[in-house]
Amino acid sequence: MENGAKGCEVVVSGKLQGQRTKAMKFVDGLMIHSGDPVNHYVDTALHHVLLREGVLGIKVKIMLPWDPMGKMGPKKPLSEHVTIVEPKDEILPPPSLDRRVGIQSPNNYPQHNRVSLAAVWSLDAVL
């Protein structure tokens, strides 16, 4: 975590104390578990330790930070990462007095979307 990782998870499983096997999980920071960003952001390692009592399994997951250059982490930002842009002060021109706002005359409607009523009735007759 001191070297810039966003999160880490260590799972130790096996005969830790006594005869029964147990698993202990240690988690710190942020860790994603689902989706495609797991393939890019999470680095996973697994190692088995042979002891006299049995085998211990150690799994380590490290979540890498986003790196725009792509050297220390993935170039692709997280999909849920949101950047907030400051609004620009924009001066709108005053509305002209000769045009009515919000009312369109029938001549201003787009002509390519019009369907004649006869065509609709003929479709109803076919169905």
UniProtKB/TrEMBL annotation:
GO terms for molecular function: structural constituent of ribosome. The keyword Oxidoreductase does not apply. This is 40S ribosomal protein S3. Signal peptide: none annotated. GO terms for cellular component: ribonucleoprotein complex; ribosome. Belongs to the universal ribosomal protein uS3 family. The keyword Ribosomal protein applies. GO terms for biological process: translation. Keywords: Ribonucleoprotein, Ribosomal protein. Residues 1-62 form the Small ribosomal subunit protein uS3 C-terminal domain. PANTHER family: 30S/40S RIBOSOMAL PROTEIN S3 (PTHR11760), SMALL RIBOSOMAL SUBUNIT PROTEIN US3 (PTHR11760:SF32). It comes from Sus scrofa. InterPro entries: Ribosomal_S3_C_sf (IPR036419), Ribosomal_uS3 (IPR057258), Ribosomal_uS3_C (IPR001351), Ribosomal_uS3_CS (IPR018280).
